Amino acid sequence: MQDPNNQTNDKKVYNMPDERGHFGQFGGIFVAETLVEALEELRVMYEKYRHDPVFLAEFAYDLKHFVGRPSPIYHAERWSRKVGGAQIYLKREDLNHTGAHKVNNTIGQALLAKRMGKPRVIAETGAGQHGVATATIAARLGLECVVYMGSEDVKRQAPNVFRMKLLGATVVPVESGSKTLKDALNEAMRDWVTNIENTFYIIGTVAGPHPYPMMVRDFQSVIGIEAKVQMVEMVGRQPDAIVACVGGGSNAMGIFYPYIDVPNVRLIGVEAAGHGMETGMHAAPLTANSPIGVLHGNRTYLMQDADGNIIETHSISAGLDYPGVGPEHAWLKDIKRAEYVAITDDEAMTAFHSLCRTEGIIPALESSHALAYAEKMAKTMRNDEIILVNLSGRGDKDINTVAKLANITL
Amino acid sequence: MSRIQTVFSSLKANNRKALIPYITAGDPHPKHTVNLLHTLVASGADIIELGIPFSDPMADGPVIQRASERALKHKVGLSKVLEMVSEFRQKDIKTPIVLMGYANPIEAMGRQKFTQAAKAAGVDGVLTVDYPPEECKDFIADLQANGMDSIFLLSPTSDAARVNLIVNQASGFLYYVSLKGVTGAANMDVQEVKTRVAEIRSKTNLPIGVGFGVKDAATAKKVATFADAVVVGSRMVTTIEESNEDNLIANISALMHELRAAIDGK
User: Fold this and answer.
1) Is residue B84 a contact partner of residue B35, using CB atoms and an 8 Å limit?
2) Contact yes or no for A37 and B162 at CB 8 A
3) Are strands A87-92 and A73-75 parallel, antiparallel or unpaired?
4) How many CB atoms lie within 10 A of CB B205?
5) For residues A10 and A7, what is the distance between their CA atoms, to the nearest angstrom?
6) Residue B226 maps to which CATH number?
7) Which one of the listed residues A91, A102, A182, A333 is annotated catalytic?
8) Span A380-393, mean pLDDT?
9) Is CB count within 10 Å lower at the N or C end of chain A?
10) Sheet with B125-128, edge to edge strand ranges
């Protein structure tokens, strides 16, 4: 993942994580002994290929010809005028093949799986976007694919379940725990530990044990690398602020990472405030200053009760409905390089409709959280200032949810 | 000498092997746990592994996850588990208790506060499934400074360097995971386990327990021929799950007697 403005990593001031995946006190490798060797094998192989020109060329080829990259940046002029204030630009990850940023990472990991000689890939999914993106690349590369999905999510996201099946994947509904994303992740980990020899686990976000948070960030950083070039081409400078939604945080890390060392660009992650921060029914561990804990292989801010058990999260958007957050976001919050805020279900819905009507773009409910915060911010800024929103996915998958809210039967 | 060391040396002197049953604290209901612990001892347990319920037990199979869910319905958290150990200790000062669980409940309480509270309650060892030695050096030191053992898992995929690292950090005994998978998974290959246990033994004097796949008395019997301890978890929990209030104690007792007899070669 070569950054054209910053040719080598060692020139960078920011150089995280350490060799065991620590971002300060966050991250690390907190797994049962049964997974240690598999992670070590993955770490070694990723180190081998992450700067390998042949591997990177293959990755770049697929991003261009299979995904359709680079994704454009679009100046949402009408919407900016309507909002009043800063100019809002959208990084159009919604235009990627499969409809979201998720595919950038699944291609990277699937190519690595191929190189490691693993004929079977598994994945966890919440909204289904990562599952679809995994099933897609598995079909293209001829890999067996099994996707774990909480049984609640299977019900909520029926079209994506069908898409995965069309692509030849097996979808396994997970009945344990809260029957959502975190439980799907638990179940995928169990599959992996049982089938380590022939299976590659494609994690969809910048969480999990090292090297996943780093590896997923690297594969997703194509978003920010492109944006840096495109903004200069379009307006001759970098934006004043970049806004992205954060569940686990992969689309946000993807666009933030190449900008960490760029001064005067504010990085703002938008979590899901669900029914409202004051209700406790949200999915915003950073905004809520949740305690630090250990889950899914890394140390991070975690929504939990006094006994250290993980509590249920609430968000209208399944993709943000996660009790933890990628460890690098926890670190960026602590070093104050990024800011984290939260947007309620209602605010996200308002922004969703606003973008549909004003720009002819149906955004994903996840991305609508970023849009809603950009709208709030823009109003406080001058009209020659620029906000770049990572429009991480399109909203086709959400039309059932939106229709249901309006009491419409499709 | 710690209670765990005492148990292993006295068994060794008598040429016997340890039986280590596992139950989850608070399963099926917190009111039964202390009684169950005493039952386990009365029916042949040498050491008891007591599970700390956790909402996301990633290394466990469905059986033990359901045990956690049953316990969590009754809000059995780590503090409550330690109270149960204290209560058990009022009548039993001999049988070692090893807490088995995940890092987050311990971190939520605070590592140091936990170590003090565990010591005060009479805990003998701690196995934190998702704390590899590299991530918990201070914690291991703190446990050992307070007279508790740090128990670690070794797996079929642990290579020689890894085994060396772990045997140097571990105390009390080592827990060899007999299969690739989660607790209660498929049947183990006893011959392969035997070979691996012999390899580990060449690197350490610590006693070696084998678990994760001991499903019945016949497997327990075979494992006992080469391991120092046989750990039985999912099978215990399944029996708890299938019992009712009236036959719970009798069923657990019967299972324990069967396992004990098998391990003792009777």
Assistant:
1) no
2) yes
3) antiparallel
4) 6
5) 9
6) 3.20.20.70
7) A102
8) 98
9) C
10) B149-150, B125-128, B97-101, B48-51, B18-24, B229-232, B208-211, B174-177, B152-154
Share of chain B above pLDDT 90, in %: 89
Q: What's the pTM?
A: 0.96
**Nearest Cα to Cα of residue B193 among B233, B227, B244:** B227
What tens digit of pLDDT does each residue of A268-299 get? 999 999 999 999 999 999 999 999 999 999 99
Q: How many domains does chain B have?
A: 1
Fill in the DSSP letter of residue A67. Answer: I
Range of the domain at B168: 3-263
What are the Cα distances from residue A313, in Å, to A225, A255, B223? 32, 25, 44
- Do A168 and A139 touch, CB atoms closer than 8 A? yes
Cα distances (Å, whole numbers) of residue A50 to A56, A106, A196, B135, B222: 7, 15, 22, 25, 47
d(CA B22, CA B202): 27
| Cβ-based interface (< 8 Å): residues of A facing B | 20, 28-34, 36-38, 176-177, 182-183, 186, 189-190, 193-196, 291-297, 302, 304-310
CA distance A128 to A333: 28
Do A220 and A190 contact (CB within 8 A), yes or no? no
The three-state secondary structure class of A114 is: helix
Tell me the H-state helices in chain B.
3-13, 33-42, 62-73, 78-89, 103-109, 111-121, 137-145, 160-169, 190-201, 217-224, 234-242, 248-263
Q: Are B39 and B32 in contact (CB under 8 A)?
A: no
Return the closest-CA partner of residue B102 out of B65, B51, B148: B51
- Distance in angstroms between the alpha carbons of the first and the last residue of chain B: 30
Name residues whose C-beta falls within 8 Å of residue A117's C-beta, 6 or more positions apart in sequence. Answer: none
**Are residues A190 and B182, on separate chains, in Cβ contact within 8 Å?**
yes
Yes or no, beta carbons of B56 and A31 under 8 Å apart: no
Predicted pLDDT at B213: 84
Chain B CB contacts of A195 below 8 Å? 180
